[in-house]
Amino acid sequence: MKSLIERLPNTCKKQLTFKYFAVASLLVLLPLTANATVKSVEDSPNWLTIRDSLFPDTPIAEDALITLETPVRAQDAAIVPLSVKVNVQQNAPNPIEKIFLVVDNNPSPIVGTFDMTPNNGIANLSTRVRVNAYSPVRVIARTADGSLHMAANFVKASGGCSAPAGADDMLARQRMGKMKLKELGQGDSRALQLLISHPNYSGLQIDQLTRHWIPSDYVSDVNITLEGEPVLRFNGGISISENPTFTFHVDKGKSGKLKADVKDSTGRTFSSEWDI
Fold first, then answer.
1. What is the chain's Cα-based Rg?
2. pTM of the model
3. What SS3 state is found at 112?
4. Residue numbers in the chain where pLDDT is lower than 50
5. CB neighbours of 160 closer than 8 A, spacing ≥ 6?
C-alpha cells in the first residue's frame, strides 16, 4: 500500500517544499493504512516520526502548563478552529518561548511555529487549520529553559487540505494581502485578532473549471511588531486555512504603532499598521 505522499501527482509533490517538508517526507515510510486506523491521540504512529524529527531525545511533559481547545468533530475540515491557552505569564521567570502546532495525519503535519515574546503578556493563541484526515492535533510549548509541554486532542475531520477554496479565485487574488485588526477585549493583556486575506492554496486542490492542480500559494511568515519591538512571529505551511486568522495578546501596558509584515510562499510581501 502506497503512502499518502507517494500517491500524490508529481506536480503536487514539488509544491510541498516549505521549511518543514523534511518532516512530511519522513511520513512516506509510514503506511496509509496506519493513518486510516488511528482512533485516538495515543494511537498515532506518525507522531513518533514527527516527535523524533522535531524534538530528538527531548522529553515532553503533558501537564497543566498548556491546554488546547478544538472541536471533537469539525463542521468544515478546511477551517477548523483551535485555541491554545497557557498557565504562565510572559513576565514569569520561565515564560513560553515557542509554540508548535502539529496535525499528525496531514500531508505536511507541521502547521507552523510561533515565536513568543515578553510583549505578549500571555502566550495564548487562536487560529484556524486544515485537517486532512481523522487525526490527533497537538500543541507543544517550549519554555525559556528549553523544557517541552504538550496538549493534544483527537479531531474528526477529513479532506481539509484538498477542499476547494471558499471564494472565487479572481476575487481572492484581488483582495490578497489586505489585513484587518480587531481588538477583542482586555484583561491582564489585550487580545487582538489579525485577519489576512489570502487563498492559502495548499497545492492539493483542483481547479473546478480546468481540472488542473492549483499551485501552492500560502502565507509562510507573519512578523508582528509594536514600535519596532517583536511581539509575535509565525512561520508555517499549507495547513493554515485560507484567509489566515491569528488571535494573540499584547501586554496591556504597551501602546503605539502595531505593524504586521506578511510574506507568502511565492515571495510576495504585504504590510499594514495600526495604532493601539
1. 18
2. 0.85
3. strand
4. 1-36
5. 74, 76, 77, 78, 79, 80, 129, 130, 131, 132, 241
